[in-house]
Structures are given as structure tokens and as C-alpha cells.
Design a protein that fits this description.
The complex is a heterodimer. Chain A is built from 25 helices and 2 strands. Chain A is mainly alpha-helical. The two termini of chain B are 20 Å apart. Classes of the chains: A mainly alpha, B mainly alpha.
Chain lengths: 545, 294
């Protein structure tokens, strides 16, 4: 049999079959592809972006790029506060951030780490103009032409070669600061000669020109630059060698250089704005949280914090996450146990009744399962209130005095009883489907061998029903640790879960990084549980209705 | 299950007390839902039975909460939004989901496990986490659609909520339709092809009618998922996309008004109708596939 088998069209059968199989695979994939793409875009990417956001920390380095760079070499154990260079970089970074109104956002971000930084940043932002005026006003007095936007534009705009690298760097700076691609046309290009002669002034002017053109949509040629260009110019003039320069405003520059105009000492200027700047606290916070990625949110999510000396526990009074995690797990377990206790008899009854009766009773289980979650939650709110139906009935029977009505809502009791009710069908249905498969003959055999009812149940029936209990338990536990709506409405403050904390950080405190970190931890827990569920029961065995 | 004649007294007591316990648990399951219904006809703005109601005095009952629901612009907006969002989301998840389920049920699908896990994941991940992830991503998606594509703000809001709800409904469609396809006789499509029908004709004339019950009940699950969903819509949508559950949630959290009970009653009636439909479809499907009705 040397010859391979040949298909009808003359190709070897093996190849022909392989081709048919490949085509079949491709067709199957083509049918799945649209949905797969849809789920990837609308669901998997959002979840991924949440995971990313829990470690992402670009705001510090995007808002204060030069400060972060020069602060990197500062060692807090060597000197109490950073050097003048850092304060200088901070001044120019803060100036543009304040113009773009981004310094308060950064203050809010850093306030999560060190309380008080929010107001420090907000107040300092207002006083930066005064520091710039120390240099700006004398310059203007020296020659009124320095107050004209046109003078600056003529000096800075490229006559010969332009410094494209600087332009690109400043576009990136503005883009990162404003979270907006600063890609529009700008009627300005930094002159290469001036860029080498006056690097700092050129850097700040370029950033201003791009901001003005892209964000304000104005022509930088006719506008006055920010006051911060004046101190930048004077700093440059201290060291600049103007002898070979003959471009525009050459004489004005020489006069200004000769006049030896005042420049603020940025260290004292910041200390005068707020004495906190003269302490190590804000600088240590900045340095610790200047990386592009941070473990800070995850540390916060487990009651720790990132400090200059590595991770440390939060102060006692701020440790709330551990309580919440423990409470979430503890209450989920309680709900799970009450579901087992209430669900087991029902599942047993359903599995042992004749089909017709069982189906009828099953409707009583499925009806709450199909009823809107909010309907069930509102029902419990109505029932459990102090003026609600349960209290009224108890008072009417005489069990409770009218002035001693039970408090059953806005506490853990309210959450547990209403969530047990809501999740009970998820326990009953898997138990029922397992119990249906248990042969009643085993019980009869046990009894005929002399076992009591209890022994027969406990030694024969119960072990066979354990898979159903396991499946129900995992399902109920997973569902309850991620619950949000019901605890929010009937849980008050004592009966809320970790998910309510996530929602709080998303919509009220706006600490999105922390919300993302809490979500990632919860997601990891749920995925581990599902992996266990898959091993024990198999995801394919999930049945609906 | 019935009690034998020779049962001892202890067994008798246990038998009846077990029945009573089960009765109480069923009561626990159903009573909260049932209690809401008469309360929604309360003539007062109370959440409990007034003495007039207990005396069955007609003056104690009224339809005013229903009237409020049908005339209050807030509730009407919420109902309109629910009736826009849920059907469109259902259509998206059913059409994409059915196609994918057919693809997945073929014999040679590469990476079947991974694909299945991805498609089922919206059901596995807790809603609060899906909502958090969607909150971040959909707000930038919305900004992009408004600024770059220049779309209307309200329209973009609906698109975001509909996409989010469609993806939440997909696992239910996949699960029910693949379950239906397990019992599907493949020789039928081969027979159709043998008689000269193209794949499209075969699908619509042979396969679709047979799996239709599964598709419809998957669609109903997707519909109820969207119709009942509140966490994601709270995070992704804005006030102009508020749905019925959103309005109920806000009402329950802030100023609880008896209109909620009227809405709840209407929703219970809807869910009873849906439950009946699914049950009938399931029986029909099993009859069609030659299984005994369960």
C-alpha cells in the first residue's frame, strides 16, 4: 500500500480531509467572531482598564514633570527640604498647572495620601502670580516694550533654524497636563539660537504658546505671555553670553542683563505662601507618589499606605477596609448558611413529591427568582420598617409593645434577611437538580437493614446531596459578596458591603484609583471561587429556570 | 412520600411538622411579593395596612398610586427609557449570541474553552465590578463619540447603556441556545443541503424554527436582565437615560413614595407572564425534540 488514498477530485484523501476540517474550523470561528469582538470591546477592555487604573499614577509626573525629575535626587534623610533647583522647577510647573487649573486636581489626588495637601495646592496656586511679579514688574519698568506680547514673539519665534525637539517636548508636556492631544496648528516655532541662549525662558514661552494656540484657540503672536517668562528670562540672563547675539531686542536683553534685576528666591517664596512647603511633608509625598505606576491604591485598599520608608499600616482611626472585607465575608457566610437551612427542606420536598405537585410548588420558588430585584428589595423595606407590616402584626398580636417596635432595617439583620430571601432560589435550584438524581431505593435499603430514619438520612441520603449543597453554596456566596443594591437600601451603615464602598468612591469621593483597586481584589476573589466552582461542579452545568 | 399506616406517633409528628416547616419557608419566599400587591391599592400614603383596608372598606382602597405612575413625567420617562433600552439590547444580544452559539456547537472549534469563558464572563463578574470598569471606559468612549464623531449627547447616552446591557444579556442567550442545540439533530441540516438548500435557507427554514424556543427564552432572559438592571445604568447612564429600576432605586433611597409599590405590582405581573412563557416554551421545545415534558 505505497499509494496514498485519493479523493474524488484527485488530491490525496488526507490533505482533502485536512482542508475540509480547516474550512469547518474557520466557519465556526467566523460565526463566533462578531460576538467575541463585541464582548471584548464592550466588556473585557473595560474590566482591563479598571485593573490598569488601580495601579496607574501618571497624574503627578504629568502635572509636575520637571519637579519630579529634579526631586528624584533629593534624599529626605540628608536634608530637611529639597534644594533651590527643586523649588524653581516646582514654581514653573505649578504656574502652568495653575493656568490650566490642574493643580487642584493634583492636590485632591495627593490628599488621598497626606491630608492637607489639597488646600496647600489650592492656596499656593493663587499666589504664584505675586512671585512672578517680583521679576516682571522691574523688567517692565526698565523697558515698557517687555509688556508687549509682540516683543516676546519677535524674540522667540524662529528666524532661521527652529528647535523641533523643544517644540515636540512642550507639546507632550501640554498634552499630558491637559489630558488632551495638543496637536492643533500653532503659529509659533522656537528659534534655535535663542533656545540655546535662553533655554528656560524659551521652554516656558513655548509651553505658553502651545497652550494659548491649542487650548485657548488664540494666536500667540499678538497675546501677552504668562508672567512666569520674566523670572525665567532673568534666570537665563544671569549666565547667558550675549556678545555674539544681534537678533531682535538685542539691546533690550543687554540692558536687562546689566541692570541685575531681582529674582525671587523660590525656597523663601514657597515658604511664605504656606509654611508647610518648608517642611519635608509635601515633598516626601510628591517623591513617594511620583512613579508612573503605584501600589498605593492597593495598599490603601487593605488599610495600609505607601510612605517614604515603604508600606506601613494606616493610623488606627482610618482602618475601615479590613472591617468591611471581614463583614462582607462574614455576612455572606451567614446568608449562605441561612440559605442552606431554608433551602434544604424545600429541595428535599420538591425532589420527593410526585412530579405534578413538585412542578406546582416549583413555581413558588421560581416566582421570586423571576421577580425584579428592586421589587423584592422594596417589599422588604416596606415589611421591615418600624411602621411596617411585620411590626404592625407583632404589635397587634401583642408580642411587642407599641413603643417598643423592633428595629429591623438599616442594620445587619435587614441585609441578611432580605438577601437570604433574594438568593434562596439560587440555593434551592442546584440542590433540587442533584436530589432528583438520588435513588429513593437507597433510603429504603438502609431502612430495611435496620437503620433509623435519622441514620438512613444522615449516612445515606445526605452524603449524596452534598454536591448540590456545594454548588448552591458557591453560587450564593459569589453572588452575595458582590451585592450592592440590597445592602445599600436596607443595610444602613452597619449592614453594607465592600461593593457599597466601591460605589461610594466612584460617585462621591471620586477616588477612582482606590475604587479600581477594591474592585480588582473583589474580582480576584470571585474568579478564584469560580475556578473552584468549575472544578467541583463544572461551569457547563449551570442551568437556568 | 405519603405516611405509611404503620408509622409511629413520633414519625407522624415529624411528618406533619416537616410539612409545616416547608409551608413556612414557602410563605417566606412568596409573602413579601404578595404583600406588596394589596398595599399598592392603599388610599393613604402609608406602607402598611390601614384599618379601613383590614375591614375591606372600599374607601380604604384606591388606584391613586397607579394614576400617579401613569401621569408623573418622571415615571413616564423612566418607563419610556426602559422600553427603549431593553428591547434594543435584547435584539443585539440575541442576534449575536445565536450566531455564536451555532458556531460554538459545531464539532471542531479551536480554543472553545477560552472563548466560552470570555462569553460567559459578564454573568460571572459581579455587577459592581462590571459597572466600575464600564464607568471608566464608557465615559471616555462617550467623550470620543461626542467630540470626534460629533454625535448628540442624549443619543450617545442611550448607546452606552444599550451596549452595556447587551453584553450583560449575552451569557444567558449563549447558555440557553447552546443547551437547545445539544439536542439538535444534525442530519436535518445535511438532509436540507442534500436537497439543494443553501446554508442561509437551511438556517432560516430548518434550523431556526427548531431552536426558536431556546432563542426566545434566551431573549427573555436577556430582556429581563436589562429591564431589571440598575447598577450598570446608575454608573454608565445619566439622568436622561434613567430606567424604571433606577427610578425605583432612587425612590427607595431618598423619598420612598407609595407609587413604587404600584410599579412593583406591575413588574410582578410582567414577571409572572414571562415565567409562564418560558415554561411553556421549554415544554414545547422538549416535546419537539422528543423528550418527555419535565
Amino acid at each position: 500500500m505505497a499509494d496514498a488514498m485519493i479523493a474524488a477530485d484527485g488530491t490525496p484523501l488526507k490533505r482533502s480531509l485536512a482542508r475540509a476540517l480547516r474550512r469547518q474550523k474557520l466557519r465556526a470561528l467566523a460565526l463566533v467572531a462578531p460576538l467575541l469582538l463585541f464582548v471584548l470591546i464592550t466588556f473585557i477592555i473595560p474590566i482591563g482598564s479598571m485593573l490598569f487604573r488601580s495601579v496607574e499614577n501618571e497624574m503627578v509626573s504629568n502635572t509636575l514633570p520637571y519637579t519630579v525629575e529634579s526631586l528624584a535626587s533629593w534624599d529626605s534623610s540628608q536634608s530637611e527640604i529639597p534644594s533651590e533647583d527643586v523649588f524653581e522647577a516646582m514654581f514653573f510647573d505649578m504656574f502652568i498647572a495653575a493656568e490650566a487649573k490642574r493643580h487642584t486636581r493634583l492636590g485632591t489626588r495627593l490628599n488621598y495620601e497626606t491630608t492637607g495637601l489639597s488646600s496647600l495646592f489650592r492656596q499656593s496656586g493663587r499666589q504664584l502670580d505675586d512671585v512672578a511679579d517680583i521679576s516682571y514688574e522691574p523688567l517692565e519698568d526698565l523697558d515698557a516694550a517687555w509688556d508687549e506680547g509682540e516683543t516676546w514673539y519677535a524674540l522667540m519665534n524662529a528666524r532661521g533654524a527652529a528647535d523641533d525637539d523643544l517644540m515636540y517636548a512642550q507639546r507632550t508636556r501640554v498634552a499630558q497636563l491637559t489630558d488632551d492631544p495638543a496637536s492643533g496648528p500653532v503659529n509659533f516655532a522656537p528659534d534655535a539660537e535663542i533656545a540655546t541662549l535662553l533655554p528656560l525662558a524659551m521652554r516656558e514661552y513655548t509651553a505658553w504658546a502651545i497652550y494659548t494656540a491649542v487650548q485657548d484657540e488664540r494666536d500667540p503672536a499678538t497675546r501677552d505671555p504668562w508672567e512666569s517668562v520674566a523670572p525665567a528670562l532673568l534666570i537665563d540672563l544671569k549666565t547667558a553670553d550675549l556678545t555674539g547675539y544681534s537678533g531682535p531686542s538685542a539691546d533690550m536683553l543687554r540692558t536687562a542683563q546689566a541692570a541685575d534685576l531681582p529674582i525671587a528666591n523660590f525656597t523663601t517664596a514657597f515658604a511664605e505662601m504656606d509654611e508647610d512647603w518648608a517642611t519635608s511633608v509635601p515633598w516626601e509625598t510628591l517623591q513617594t507618589h511620583s512613579g508612573k505606576f503605584t501600589s498605593g491604591y492597593f495598599l490603601n485598599a487593605v488599610d495600609a499606605q505607601k510612605t517614604a520608608d515603604g508600606p506601613a499600616w494606616q493610623p488606627e482611626n482610618k482602618q475601615i477596609m479590613a472591617t468591611l472585607f471581614v463583614r462582607t465575608i462574614w455576612m455572606s457566610l451567614l446568608i449562605m448558611v441561612s440559605c442552606i437551612l431554608l433551602g434544604y427542606p424545600i429541595a428535599w420536598l420538591l425532589a420527593n413529591l410526585p412530579m405534578r405537585q413538585a412542578n406546582l410548588l416549583l413555581i413558588l420558588v421560581l416566582l421570586p427568582f423571576w421577580t425584579s430585584l428592586l421589587v423584592r428589595t422594596s417589599a422588604w423595606k416596606v415589611l421591615l420598617q418600624q411602621q411596617g407590616v411585620i411590626n404592625d402584626v407583632l404589635v397587634w398580636i401583642g408580642l411587642v409593645a407599641d413603643d417598643g417596635r423592633l428595629i429591623m432595617i438599616n442594620n445587619q439583620f435587614g441585609t441578611i434577611i432580605s438577601m437570604t430571601h433574594i438568593l434562596l432560589p439560587f440555593m434551592i435550584l442546584p440542590m433540587y437538580s442533584v436530589m432528583q438524581t438520588i435513588q429513593p431505593t437507597y433510603l429504603r435499603a438502609a431502612k430495611s437493614l435496620g437503620a433509623t430514619n435519622w441514620t438512613a438520612f444522615w449516612r445515606v441520603y445526605f452524603p449524596q446531596s452534598v454536591p448540590g449543597i456545594g454548588a448552591g453554596c458557591i453560587l450564593v456566596f459569589i453572588l452575595s459578596i458582590g451585592y450592592y443594591i440590597t445592602p445599600e437600601i436596607v443595610g444602613g451603615t452597619k449592614g453594607v458591603f465592600i461593593s457599597n464602598r466601591i460605589a461610594y468612591h466612584i460617585s462621591s469621593s471620586l477616588n477612582w484609583g482606590l475604587a479600581a483597586a477594591l474592585g480588582s481584589i473583589l474580582l480576584a476573589a470571585v474568579l478564584v471561587l469560580y475556578w473552584a466552582y468549575d472544578k467541583i461542579v463544572g461551569i457547563d452545568n449551570v442551568k437556568l429556570g | 412520600m405519603s405516611l405509611p399506616i404503620y408509622a409511629t406517633t413520633g414519625q407522624r409528628i415529624w411528618y406533619y411538622s416537616f410539612r409545616v416547616i416547608c409551608g413556612l419557608i414557602f410563605f417566606f419566599l412568596v409573602a413579601p411579593i404578595v404583600v406588596v400587591m394589596p398595599l399598592s391599592f392603599n388610599a393613604q400614603d402609608f406602607f402598611t395596612f390601614t384599618p379601613e383596608m383590614l375591614r375591606l372598606d372600599p374607601a380604604g382602597y384606591s388606584l391613586k398610586h397607579y394614576e400617579d405612575f401613569f401621569t408623573n413625567p418622571q415615571w413616564q420617562l423612566a418607563m419610556k427609557n426602559s422600553l427603549i433600552i431593553a428591547p434594543i439590547a435584547t435584539i443585539i444580544s440575541v442576534s449575536l449570541g445565536t450566531l455564536a452559539a451555532i458556531g460554538l456547537s459545531q464539532s471542531h472549534v479551536p480554543f472553545k474553552g477560552t472563548i466560552m469563558a470570555i462569553l460567559i464572563s459578564p454573568m460571572i463578574v459581579p455587577l459592581i465590578i462590571s459597572a466600575t470598569g464600564m464607568f471608566f471606559f464608557y465615559s471616555s468612549l462617550g467623550n470620543w463619540m461626542e467630540n470626534t464623531l460629533g454625535l448628540d449627547k442624549g443619543f450617545v447616552g442611550y448607546v452606552k447603556v444599550i451596549l452595556a446591557h447587551a453584553v450583560l444579556g449575552i451569557p444567558f442567550v449563549i447558555i440557553t441556545v447552546t443547551a437547545t442545540l445539544v439536542g439538535f439533530d444534525r442530519s436535518l441540516t445535511r438532509a436540507a443541503a442534500n436537497m439543494g438548500a443553501g446554508p442561509v435557507t437551511t438556517f432560516f427554514r430548518v434550523q431556526m424554527p427548531l431552536i426558536l424556543p431556546g432563542v426566545i427564552s434566551g431573549g427573555l432572559f436577556a430582556f429581563i436582565t436589562s429591564f431589571d438592571e440598575v447598577v450598570v445604568v446608575l454608573f454608565v447612564g445619566s439622568a436622561s437615560q434613567k430606567t424604571l429600576p433606577w427610578q425605583m432605586f432612587i425612590g427607595l433611597r431618598e423619598q420612598i413614595s407609595p407609587t413604587i409599590l404600584a410599579v412593583a405590582t406591575i413588574l410582578v405581573v410582567i414577571s409572572i407572564a414571562l415565567l409562564t412563557t418560558v415554561e411553556l416554551l421549554r415544554r414545547r421545545s422538549e416535546r419537539l425534540r422528543g423528550m418527555s415534558p419535565g
